[in-house]
Amino acid sequence: MIISQWWLFLRMFYINEDLKQMLESNKDSAKLDAMKRIVGMMAKGKNASELFPAVVKNVASKNIEIKKLVYVYLVRYAEEQQDLALLSISTFQRALKDPNQLIRASALRVLSSIRVPIIVPIMMLAIKEAAADLSPYVRKNAAHAIQKLYSLDPEQKEMLIEVIEKLLKDKSTLVAGSVVMAFEEVCPDRIDLIHKNYRKLCNLLVDVEEWGQVVIIHMLTRYARTQFVSPWKEDDGVEDNEKNFYESDDEEKEKTEKRKKPYTMDPDHRLLIRNTKPLLQSRNAAVVMAVAQLFWHLSPKSEASIISKSLVRLLRSNREVQYIVLQNIATMSIQRKGMFEPYLKSFYVRSTDPTMIKTLKLEILTNLANEANISTLLREFQTYVKSQDKQFAAATIQTIGRCATNISEITDACLNGLVCLLSNRDEIVVAESVVVIKKLLQMQPAQHGEIIKHMAKLLDSITVPVARASILWLIGENCERVPKIAPDVLRRMAKSFTSEDDLVKLQILNLGAKLYLTNSKQTKLLTQYILNLGKYDQNYDIRDRTRFIRQLIVPNEKSGALSKYAKKILLAQKPAPLLESPFKDRDHFQLGTLSHTLNTKATGYLELSNWPEVAPDPAVRNVEVIELAKEWTPAGKTKKENPSKKFYSESEEEDGSSDSNSDSESESGSESGEQSEEGDSSDDSSEDSSSDSGSGSESELENKRTAKKNAKNKGRSDSEDGEKENEKSKTSESSSAESSSVEESSSDSESESESASKPESRKVTKEKEKTRQDRNPVTKDVSLLDLDDFNPVSTPVALPTPALSPSLIADLEGLNLSASSSVINVSTPVFVPMKTHVMLHRMSGKGLAAHYYFPRQPCIFGDKMISVQITLNNTADRKIENIHIGEKKLPTGMQMHVFNPIESLEPEGSITVSVGIDFCDSTQTASFQLCTKDDCFNVSIQPPVGELLLPVAMSEKDFKKEQGMLTGMNETSTIIIAAPQNFTPTVILQKVVNVANVGVVPSGQDSIYRFAAKTVHSGSLMLVTVELKEGSTAQLIINTEKTVIGSVLLRELKPVLSQG
Fold first, then answer.
1. Which family, according to UniProt (predicted)?
2. What is the pLDDT of residue 320?
3. Which of 6, 279, 414, 445 could link 404 by a cystine bridge, Cβ 3.0 to 4.6 Å?
4. What are the structural domain ranges in the chain?
């Protein structure tokens, strides 16, 4: 043994020496190989701390791969070797400025792993810089570092809260989970930080990584319990029919009005429940459990039942997951049996289940037992009693006893079955049966004298102390009903008193005392003998009990008045034991937490608060967005430039402002339903809307024309200029009136959660538009599809605010309010493929055929929607009537604007209709029903990834600038091999625009071709580069924040560019 240990020590010594030499080598390949071996040792759990000095020397290596592995090592051992790690602080600080995001993040991780108070200011500065980093991965690591710094120095709490507040506003799904975890660790009581970010977190939840989802859901559960009223009031409201004696009629009327007031769920409360519901299908058990506890604690009781199916699905997981899930189901099944009754068979015990799982399943089966299913369960329990697992068999007997107490109809049957078990060969089964029978007999002792006699005979064979003590207690309690048996049992127990267990000795003393009081003639001497034995017993508890009983039952001069009541004390009627579930008291802990599992409050547990009686002001969750534009408005700019005259006359300014106000009202009215459904949409859309409103195509044309006319016609009178500008304003107003009317028609068919005030706002808008059109006759028809830069302004989440007037738009044109305003300009599509896709075959549609294609036109139904043209053909010999779209089965977040119903389609007839679908930047299928008067057909539309884009016009300089910001994890690339003739400019352009709706970026190099687009839903840039290499190879590079879409587009472009 000693030799083998010595050999192992020598082997590790030589391995370490070999690695040290490799780390000190001048070759990067040797260093890289050494670091890979060291990280492999760490992964296997081997101690590599002795190599710290040799590894830390390579922290400044220029090789990125070596540097990454060195940082991985330092994160693990920096806390153990703090002095050596401190020597490299300057290197870590330099690495925080490294262009590679992985190096910056790793440097921050190492810095936060050095647990030395002296570097707290350096860590604080690094965290603040990382929180403002362009890379979401670095910002995520900054959130992780916040928790480490707080545990090292809690005095930095206020400064860390400022960083957390900044990171909570982050739009990246990569950061959301980490910053909420930091919030929970540092300042879980600062609910005010969540108000403005609540809706954003709800909407981002589906896209956050799994462990981030768990943290966010638990935090939002606590938040909701403080901000919304209870949805259970309607269920729990118990009518109080009794009237107080002094209560007036007015007071009673007020109470009844309060009771009758219907419960209406807050839209933000509904948003949380709706956005977490899809996560019940998550592959991660922790996410499903988190959503289940949220529904349990927050949703109306009628909606909570949907979690049962998902929880039962988790029972197919490993035993650890089963254990936690079953514990939570056991707690739920006590209060709401109906949730899990349909899945009763899922809780039947399998032979392969471990004992802990079997016991929990028994607990749940007991909770679900009722008159309807008890016969089935009892047959199941009979099988369990025969199990080889004795602990499980004993638990089954306890379960039978609980069922017998809960359901009075089967009490006698269970009792008879337990008596039969008394003849079982297994001592543990018999002992547990005795204990349970004792509890059952306490409920109706007068009826079961024969059972007590039968159990008295078992004293010779049963050796388990608890069972023997239970039999003696039963005989003592019923000694007057079995007057012949009880003294004989006492005689036999007196013989074996000294060898009995302490628990049995106590019951022998009690039996002797009871018989002394009821049958002193036969048992007086026997009781005194037992008391003398107990007086000198080794256990002090038995000696104390002996002295107490002697003074109580044997009267003498010293005994007080208590001995007169000895019989009433010892033979008092005992209350029947209440057999309750051990999970009954766990419901005050939040489900799915460690405290619930342990049934005790664990460190760091945050209690759920009670529902407030009155909900706090929901306006705190509104996010003002357009206010930023107002702050940046240069108030006196026009006056300074041209103090002699205004850009518009006063009358025109008044008209323009009133028109803009009416436009804003119509838009807010038409989109209020979308606000209530979507909650707090991402800030990107609001920023884009503000920038688009400042750079609309119509306003730009007006400003250019008026500027030219002012230059040409300087000598003309002001009245002529006013007339011409009046004409232009009329045309622009007519086009805006058309666009607002289109928005109204689209909002008419919006989802059902629109507010009640919506119809009123529509009426007001229509009246205003009517008067406007009467006042300004249309001089020129402007088609919405003719506009290249068609971007309707999306209403922000905040309360409706007036739109900017034309004069302010002109002033704001020169100010780049957002970084994207000067870069992202939607252009016309370069190429429109006419490829059609089959939506409904004529055979499946009973004569109705449907095809669809993507026209690559701006959608008139919404700026986040994609236009889809559907061609319907009637191939039958009869007329098809009432063609319309029925039930929509869309994924979460996806929206669809349907076409108006078609009254009839003649045989051999054809019609093309247009629909708008918001695919939420994903290639998920939009499923719905295409219905006729007689039938409904399930159809679906799946977009190619290239159709999720809008072409963008930008300069080469802007392209390179944006590409430089989208590197690292936001960049995907591949090598393409093809014949040289396939790499001509015409062929590359044709192939790329055929696959994706992208715009061509002018390039100063013949070997590089650039294309730019943005996603329709979120407006994220998609930059495509084809760079020709030597020979017949080329490199395809895609830069985008939407990495999933980027990788899918890469996979589609690669084979197209490779083939001839």
1. Belongs to the adaptor complexes large subunit family.
2. 93
3. 414
4. 40-227, 369-444, 465-583, 826-943, 947-1058
